[in-house]
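Anyone up for a design puzzle?
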């Protein structure tokens, strides 16, 4: 929005420069504020691979090859160059943010090793009974699956089998993560399927046969308006929910539908200190708005100053997925999954377990789960705290 495109190159308006006219020649930010905006998650300015220009990173590419890039210059595709051939991924793969993704029949950090069997045979050996490569739970290298195991304990981890077809996590309900019990403690897990003890039934042996309700009736009563029994936050037994974590009154409701942890940010602040939490939603004080009451309605910036802080590196205002208020992007409320300082993140990319993003045990931050205390795993599915009865 600060220039014109001429034959594939930007001709910038007065007061702007850069390959996408993204940098103002006059900066209204202090050096401290500018540097804060350029810090990556490790608090390193532009990942040590560029310079900070008015709150935006300018990556160092002295050879003009564009191999260093990203919002914080965090991607360095020079890592993909093979020392012997000087080719990216040895010419047998593609590089994405410093990592090689190899063509069929090649493997290694830089796709430097060739498999001794044909690509067809590789695919055949790695294809699981459901027709997926390594059951979508592992990586196929030369006909052998390496499973993406989240909890490697005992003789094998939660995910195992020649084609990663066995997923023991299927034997665990959400509430079971507070103990080591599979199949609700009432059965044996065999390749991701529960074989129940006498007196118990259900997919995860959660239902006592003595209950006058059927498994379906019990689950329906526990679901309420949710898609999952007890909203995926508690144990359903004979139509009644017990919310978890035990003793944590932030999760409550007949069907555990209220999760007041959703009102907290990663620092534990409730509604940013500018509102109250009601059943997992923030009710903001006058003068504040936003999902976490993080935006003040007052603003001492001009419209132009505000817009300049909301433009991403490509020059688009809030990535075209939100509106700009006082130098900050407010992402579209209709598209709940859009987040990030410039609305550049898609939280649908966050890992799920039992159908819940971050298993309900953390918040999704720019496509990655940030787990609450006591939880770990890509989807915050592993409980690291003490066991519960």
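Challenge accepted. My sequence:
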């Amino acid at each position: 929005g600060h220039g014109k495109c001429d034959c594939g190159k930007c001709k910038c308006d007065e007061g702007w420069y850069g390959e996408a006219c993204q940098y103002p020649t006059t900066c209204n930010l202090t050096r401290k504020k500018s540097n804060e905006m350029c810090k990556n998650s490790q608090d390193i300015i532009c990942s040590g691979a560029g310079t900070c220009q008015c709150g935006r990173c300018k990556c160092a590419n002295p050879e003009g090859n564009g191999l260093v890039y990203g919002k914080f210059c965090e991607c360095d595709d020079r890592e993909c160059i093979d020392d012997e051939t000087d080719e990216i991924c040895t010419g047998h793969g593609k590089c994405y943010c410093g990592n090689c993704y190899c063509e069929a029949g090649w493997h290694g950090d830089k796709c430097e090793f060739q498999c001794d069997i044909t690509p067809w045979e590789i695919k055949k050996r790695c294809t699981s009974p459901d027709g997926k490569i390594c059951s979508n739970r592992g990586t196929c290298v030369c006909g052998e699956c390496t499973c993406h195991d989240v909890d490697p304990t005992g003789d094998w981890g939660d995910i195992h089998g020649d084609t990663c077809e066995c997923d023991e996590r299927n034997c665990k309900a959400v509430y079971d993560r507070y103990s080591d019990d599979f199949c609700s403690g009432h059965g044996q897990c065999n390749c991701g399927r529960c074989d129940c003890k006498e007196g118990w039934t259900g997919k995860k042996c959660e239902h006592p046969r003595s209950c006058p309700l059927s498994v379906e009736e019990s689950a329906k009563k526990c679901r309420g308006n949710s898609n999952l029994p007890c909203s995926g936050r508690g144990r359903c037994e004979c139509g009644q929910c017990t919310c978890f974590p035990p003793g944590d009154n932030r999760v409550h409701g007949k069907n555990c539908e209220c999760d007041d942890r959703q009102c907290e940010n990663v620092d534990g602040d409730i509604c940013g200190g500018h509102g109250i939490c009601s059943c997992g939603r923030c009710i903001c004080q006058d003068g504040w708005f936003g999902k976490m009451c993080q935006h003040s309605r007052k603003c001492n910036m001009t419209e132009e100053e505000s817009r300049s802080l909301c433009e991403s590196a490509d020059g688009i205002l809030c990535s075209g997925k939100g509106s700009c208020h006082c130098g900050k992007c407010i992402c579209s409320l209709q598209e709940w999954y859009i987040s990030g300082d410039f609305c550049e993140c898609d939280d649908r990319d966050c890992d799920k377990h039992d159908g819940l993003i971050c298993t309900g045990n953390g918040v999704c931050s720019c496509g990655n789960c940030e787990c609450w205390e006591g939880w770990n795993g890509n989807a915050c599915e592993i409980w690291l705290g003490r066991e519960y009865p």
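A detail worth pointing out: The mean pLDDT is 84.
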